[in-house]
Design goal:
29% of the residues lie in helices and 29% in strands. It has 251 residues and is of the alpha/beta class. It has one domain: 3-Layer(aba) Sandwich (Rossmann fold), CATH 3.40.50.1580. Strands 5-9-8-6-10 form a five-stranded mixed beta barrel. A hairpin with a 2-residue loop joins strand 2 (37-45) and strand 3 (48-55). Helix 2 runs parallel beside helix 5 and helix 3 (132-145) crosses helix 6 (231-250). The protein is globular and about 50 Å long. Bound molecules: 1-O-phosphono-alpha-D-ribofuranose (R1P) and uracil (URA).
């Protein structure tokens, strides 16, 4: 049985798992795994920490993607080679609309492709769109749990600082291409910034896989640039949504 190159796993290691929950942060992957039945650590290599367990009696993988599109594309490609068909991202994010508050839950329907990696899967005029049914499961999960949410478009950037137009940085300079971009996205109704959904949505749509994305808001960019909230409670809420969505999709 062939091992995939980065994850070092074989199809047998996944015990038939067809659904993966994919956070950015490896420590979050470990925390999510504690909600599965019989969780085991499959591998911890580079930014990829993968766990296997059961949800609703079925095998599920939790695998961190690291930050950004390139590493996300590797995790998704290799998990797909191992039999995974549905990818549920659970992330953190910065809101750019004034009415969205820290701690709110955002579901991304589609993403603005500010990344580079998605262009290696499909040209820029191809949409970075989520899977309708996986996204509907995120929405229904919020309904079942009584959690309010916002749903809409996400700007998904390769960089946390210039690409999300942050000036509170080492140089204080944002290249011209990004000056005014945050206001432009606001005016176009974009909800938030994060860094993986454009790659995830584009590659999954192009490859015939299914993807959805939920995120908890750490900062409202109309009020401050750098998050300074306690992530714990926000993560618990977004993790509860992704686990409930996974259960609905597995039912
Ligand atoms: O919390 P995660 O899932 O890593 O998501 C967000 O947080 C990171 C930046 O701080 C980026 O990966 C961004 O997309
Ligand atoms: O502002 C933020 C917060 C989390 N993740 C991002 O990419 N941006």
């Amino acid at each position: 049985m062939e091992k995939v190159f980065h994850l070092g796993l074989t199809r047998d290691d996944l015990h038939g798992a067809k659904l993966a929950i994919v956070p950015g942060d490896p420590d979050r992957a470990a925390r999510i795994s504690t909600f599965l039945e019989n969780p085991t650590c499959l591998v911890q290599t580079r930014e990829f920490h993968a766990y296997l367990g059961q949800l609703s009696g079925q095998s599920v993988v939790i695998c961190s993607t690291g930050i950004g599109g390139p590493s996300t594309s590797i995790a998704v490609e290799e998990l797909a080679q191992l039999g995974v068909e549905t990818f549920l991202r659970i992330g953190t994010t910065g809101a750019i609309q004034p009415h969205i508050n820290e701690g709110d839950i955002l579901i991304s329907q589609a993403s603005v492709r500010l990344d580079g990696a998605s262009q290696h899967f499909a040209p820029l005029n191809y949409p970075a769109v989520s899977d309708f049914f996986a996204t509907q499961a995120m929405v229904n999960a919020c309904g079942n749990l009584g959690i309010d949410f916002h749903i809409g478009i996400t700007a998904s950037s390769d960089t946390f600082y210039p690409g999300q137009e942050r000036y509170d940085t080492y140089s204080g300079y944002v290249p011209k291409a990004f000056q005014g971009s945050c206001e432009e996205w606001q005016k176009l109704g974009v909800m938030n910034y994060e860094m993986e959904s454009a790659t995830l949505f584009t590659m999954c749509a192009a490859l015939g896989l299914k993807a959805a994305c939920v995120a908890g808001v750490l900062v409202n960019r109309t009020r401050q640039e750098i998050p300074n909230v306690d992530h714990g409670e926000i993560e618990k809420k977004s993790v509860s949504v992704v686990l409930e969505a996974a259960k609905l999709l597995l039912a």
